[in-house]
Amino acid sequence: MEDKIIRVETQATVDQEALSRLLRLVSERQRDDKRLIRFLAFRLKIDGFDATKMFLSRKLIEIERCRFGGDLYDFLKDDDESKACRDV
Length: 88
What we know:
- This protein is mostly helical.
- It contains 5 helices and no strands.
- The longest helix has 18 residues, at 49-66.
- It is globular.
């Protein structure tokens, strides 16, 4: 099964420099989260750098406002977490 997984974060179609710049926005303790890296690489490939940077920046502000203590990846992927945070 492992050989069928496409590792989007290492594909040549993803700008590694842009991905690295996005990861600098993330706290140091979460920069090695493979799920987060893949999520951002996918968004980068689909939406481009500017849109992904705006999305990530907006979500980081939301996390700061509601004092979310979990993983950034969980907050980004889960609309329920994000919506509950906005409602507080």
